[in-house]
């Protein structure tokens, strides 16, 4: 008789219930193997679900303190000077704003920030003029933007001309092309603008002609497309930020967006693409590997996906070692106190330490202990190859 049948037989006979009562356990609910416990209960023994004796706290109030004692190696500065290829520092059109960001960069060992605010035309020119007039101009590079409104006949040619003008003005690429592209941006007829819409082909071709990369954010974390129930590990985030829900009937699916994105990668092999946020495949490194193997014109950056890397440190380390020439450091949200978490995950072998936002991840992080040669590639060497307009001198060998 197998284990499942033994449990069922014990439950039916009452023997298991009697044994539990002898251990001080209260009455509960019997379930068959593989069946979920009823709401408000948890499995305390195989096939036996029980509610707590006191009212449970809310998800917001349950903050257990770990008794685990481990070595801690805080890393306030990156071991090597880094390029943040996914910078959102805000307005950089005044000396005070620039100096404020420089102070933060110095404290973190960020040598260069790539400003990825997706601006074009006059807005781009204002930022470039302010930075070029600053004594810190070599610490920043700026990406241009794309306006996807009113896509139709001849739009691609006009967008390509604007891209050429923005690059001539001093931008070194485009990005971050935001998440609304593909998700919610519409064409004049009200239909969704698909990532692989053929009207965009002249624009993607222009990137290859100008030899600059397109930094694109396609889709969102997979959990944002799943039902918002208590099995969704991003339930709290979706409850706090309702505009992040992409799980309503009729909305485009995660898989559809990824298929459209990959169609663009495939159709434009001479265009260099940077997939923001690991392409949203940091939770599935086999899929990330498949993407990089299939599309040699694609690189990835690590913005806002540390929570997935830090919970699979061995697999993530192997991935980084294998694909170090295709991975760049990026942070996304400009919160100075959050950068050291990246350094700690990348550089140390620390175990079971907190992530910086409870609503992103309720789990702990582990260090990947990346080798120095991999760190150098992730922090700056890969970025210098991908974004050729970055300052090329003064980096460690």
* Structural classification: alpha/beta
Tell how many strands the DSSP assignment holds.
12
Specify the helix fraction band: 25-40%
Secondary-structure element pattern, one letter each: HHEEEEHEHEHEHHEHHEHEHHEEHH
Strand order of the largest sheet: 7-8-9-10-11
List keywords for this structure.
single chain, 397 residues, alpha/beta, TIM Barrel, 2 domains, 5-stranded parallel sheet, 4-stranded parallel sheet, 12% strand, globular, disordered N terminus
Outline the structure in words.
The chain contains 14 helices and twelve strands. The longest helix has 15 residues, at 155-169. By secondary structure, it is α/β, with parallel strands linked by helices. It folds into two domains: 3-50, no CATH class; 82-386, TIM Barrel (Alpha-Beta Barrel). It is globular and about 75 Å long.
Which secondary structure elements does this structure contain, and how are they paired or packed?
Elements: H1 3-13, H2 15-22, E1 29-30, E2 42-45, E3 48-50, E4 82-88, H3 95-108, E5 110-119, H4 121-132, E6 140-144, H5 155-169, E7 174-177, H6 180-183, H7 201-210, E8 214-216, H8 235-240, H9 254-267, E9 273-275, H10 285-294, E10 298-301, H11 306-309, H12 313-322, E11 327-328, E12 332-333, H13 339-347, H14 372-386
Parallel strand pairs: 4-5, 4-12, 5-6, 7-8, 8-9, 9-10, 10-11
Antiparallel strand pairs: 1-3, 2-3
Helix pairs in contact: 4-5, 5-7
């Amino acid at each position: 008789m197998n284990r499942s049948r033994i449990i069922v037989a014990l439950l039916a006979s009452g023997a298991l219930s009697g044994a539990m009562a002898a251990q001080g356990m209260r009455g509960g609910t019997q379930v068959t193997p593989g069946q979920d416990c009823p709401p408000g209960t948890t499995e305390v023994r195989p096939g036996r679900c029980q509610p707590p004796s006191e009212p449970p706290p809310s998800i917001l109030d349950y903050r257990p303190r770990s008794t685990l004692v481990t070595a801690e190696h805080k890393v306030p500065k990156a071991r090597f000077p880094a390029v943040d290829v996914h910078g959102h520092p805000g307005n950089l059109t005044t000396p005070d704003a620039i100096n404020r960001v420089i102070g933060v960069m110095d404290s973190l060992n960020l040598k260069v920030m790539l400003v990825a605010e997706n601006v074009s035309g006059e807005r781009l020119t204002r930022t470039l003029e302010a930075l070029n007039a600053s004594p810190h101009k070599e610490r920043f590079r700026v990406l241009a933007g794309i306006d996807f409104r009113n896509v139709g006949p001849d739009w691609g040619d006009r967008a390509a001309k604007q891209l050429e003008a923005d690059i001539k003005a001093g931008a070194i690429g485009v990005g971050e092309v935001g998440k609304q592209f593909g998700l919610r941006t519409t064409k004049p007829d009200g239909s969704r603008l698909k990532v692989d819409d053929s009207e965009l082909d002249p624009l993607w071709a222009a990137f290859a002609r100008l030899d600059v990369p397109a930094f694109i954010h396609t889709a969102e974390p997979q959990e944002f497309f799943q039902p918002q129930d208590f099995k969704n590990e991003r339930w709290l985030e979706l409850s706090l930020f309702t505009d992040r829900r992409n799980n309503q009937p009729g909305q485009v699916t995660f898989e559809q967006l990824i298929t459209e994105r990959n169609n663009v990668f495939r159709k434009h092999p001479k265009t260099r693409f940077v997939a923001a946020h690991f392409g949203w495949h940091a939770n599935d490194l086999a899929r990330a590997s498949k993407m990089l193997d299939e599309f040699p014109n694609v690189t990835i950056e690590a913005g806002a996906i540390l929570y997935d890397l830090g919970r699979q440190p061995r697999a993530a380390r192997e991935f980084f070692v294998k694909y170090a020439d295709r991975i760049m450091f990026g942070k996304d949200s400009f919160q100075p106190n959050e950068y050291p978490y990246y350094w700690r995950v990348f550089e140390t072998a620390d175990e079971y330490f907190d992530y910086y936002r409870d609503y992103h991840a309720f789990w702990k992080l582990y260090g990947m202990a990346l080798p120095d040669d991999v760190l150098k590639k992730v922090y700056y060497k890969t970025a210098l190859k991908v974004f050729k307009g970055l300052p090329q001198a003064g980096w460690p060998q």
